[in-house]
Design goal:
about 260 residues, 13 helices, 9 strands
Length: about 260
């Protein structure tokens, strides 16, 4: 499987039946810049990690939503799955808490960045910290994440009126990906990203893992220390799904099909 946009071509790896892009940092930045600066169209980026992969296994609707979006790899668990299925790790750990701030620094052209999600105080602080981080962009806190979902169209009308280039949605998985799939469409920004707890991290919320921990791909270990029973259950569940998929033969079939398709392009 391959993802193409203009001059960017990214192969995709099968992770538990979901196509996940294997872009490096430079290619991911170039892809995001290209779609964000197009005069029309829209691309939606999501991130897959061990936790939301477990959710995807149990929730067919969530899987279908992710299959309609561009999925980037996030974290140590997905690297382990890639090693088991394909014999190599992903070129980069493109977790949203690192990728999005770095992307905003990379984008030299001023952008209007709409923000939805988190608590109101966290949202406002994250917007202010983003302004310090990349002052050439215009950060627009549209709504916290606790609005009445019946008002979703009204919230998105505010995004349209803001003439946003980029939209960041932070509601947690799978809610944010499903909400984007239902309510975000053409005219609501050309690049849309579901970003999990990014606003908490940017606002320096106390539960966020330190930057050095995230850069070393050890956020899973940090969370294990903070909440060992919750994380160990999630990790063991993910590993079970990975091994079951691997030894069922399904993973090998997908890998052969992906190789054949890539060779034909």
């Amino acid at each position: 499987m391959n993802l193409m946009s203009g001059n960017i071509v990214a192969s995709q790896r099968d992770i538990l039946g979901l196509p996940v892009c294997d872009l490096g940092w430079a290619e991911a930045f170039a892809f995001a810049e290209e779609v964000a600066t197009m005069p029309f169209g829209q691309s939606v980026i999501a991130f897959i990690n061990a936790g939301n992969a477990n959710l995807m296994i149990r929730d067919p609707e969530y899987r279908a939503v992710l299959e309609r979006q561009i999925v980037l790899p996030d974290g140590h668990g997905v690297d382990i799955a890639s090693m088991l299925f394909h014999g190599r790790k992903f070129p980069a750990n493109l977790t949203g808490t690192d990728f999005v701030p770095a992307l905003l620094t990379y984008l030299a052209r001023p952008m209007r960045v709409a923000m939805i999600g988190a608590q109101q105080t966290t949202l406002m602080q994250a917007a202010e910290n983003f302004r310090r981080h990349a002052p050439w962009h215009d950060f627009l806190p549209i709504s916290d994440g606790f609005f009445d979902r019946a008002a979703s169209d009204a919230v998105m009308e505010r995004v349209r009126e803001a003439n946003a280039d980029i939209l960041l949605v932070a509601m947690g998985s799978p809610a944010q990906e499903k909400w984007i799939d239902r309510h975000v469409g053409p005219g609501h920004a050309r690049l849309v990203l579901s970003v999990g707890n990014l606003f908490d991290v940017v606002a320096d919320a106390p539960h966020a893992a330190p930057g050095g921990i995230r850069r070393l791909r050890l956020e899973w270990l940090y969370r294990l220390v903070k909440a060992p029973s919750r994380l160990s259950r999630a990790d063991f569940s993910f590993l079970y799904h990975v091994l079951r998929y691997k030894f069922s033969g399904t993973g090998e079939a997908h890998d052969r099909n992906d190789t054949a398709k890539a060779g034909s392009l």
